[in-house]
Structure formats: structure tokens, C-alpha cells
Model the fold of this input.
Amino acid sequence: MLNEKMMRDAAQELNEVLGLKPPINVKKDLEYLSTEMRKAIKLIKPAEDEFTRATQKVINEIGGRIPVPATEKKPTIVIPPIEDDEDQATTETEEVIKEPAKTAPKKKTPTVTAKTEKPAGKKKVDTFASFCDTVFLEGGSWGEMIEIIQKEATKRGYKPPINRAAVNYHLKYRMTRNPKYLGKLKITDDGLYEE
Done:
């Protein structure tokens, strides 16, 4: 919400930055300020004129938009893929200006070990969710998996206890996003086992 001081300060900044002749009279009523500021906004040259965040907020709130020159290209929108954890994926686009391509080192995908060998927190895994994925995709009894995940959660400083409900929630989320998430594993009352 805009207050009177914000409006008057923004009008003064427009006067100074744009060199308005005649200047907007900052002592008049707010309706006058709003009308005159909308007129002044049309004179802004985005490549040359810079305003404080407060003034930009006022401009946006009174319904004005700083004009974009027709010759200016908009930045390319790139959505970087997230390989390890779908929880971190966003549905909103992130604006990233393209830079010269840099080759990033490839991430190693976690390998599945035999059923008898469970990760004991020695593997380096980026996120807690991807750690849980590794444990689930190896299969085993619910008790074993929950115990391994709880140890990792404690090591990372997570307070809430890991229980069957938390495991079910994670599995449901993953399976909703990817029905083939478990591969050949099947959910049973005892745990995750191959069909």
C-alpha cells in the first residue's frame, strides 16, 4: 500500500531523473501526483534512467509500466533441469540470461547395492529426498528403511521423527509424478520387494 510520503518522494525522483519541465508539484494532492506521474512514466528511457526500488514500487502500484524499447531483446528464459530431486523443481519459469556455455561436471547417479547392503550414511547425496530415494529403490523391510533414513535425518539435524506415514507420503508423491518410480519393486505390508 502506498502512503503519501512514498508518492511525494517518487514524484520528486521523477522530477530529478527525468528533468521534467515544468516539474511535478509535489505539494499538490495525491490524485494530481498520480495523474502527473503516469504522464511522466511515458518519458522514461529504460536504458538511461534508473530509479530507486521505492520509486519503482510506486510506479508499478499506480498502474504505470516503465516502457521497454522495441529494439531491446528480452532475455532468454531457460529452466535448468534438476537431476537429483524432483521436490526442488519449480513450475514457474526462472529468468536466466544466456551466458557462454560452460561444461559442468556430470553428476554420478547413485548405484543400487544388493539388498543386504544398505547405505550407512557414507555415500555423499545432495538432498535428503534423494537419499530417501536411494534407500527406497534398494528395497527392504519398512523397519530397515525407516531406521536408515532416521539415522540420516538425525545426522542432518532434522527434528521430526521419520515414520511410516512420512515414508508413505514420500512414496505417494514420487509415484504420482512418475508411476514407474519403483521399477520392479512392489509395495507390500512388510516393505518394498521385487515382484
Summary: The CA atoms of residues 186 and 193 lie 5 Å apart. The two ends are 60 Å apart (CA to CA).
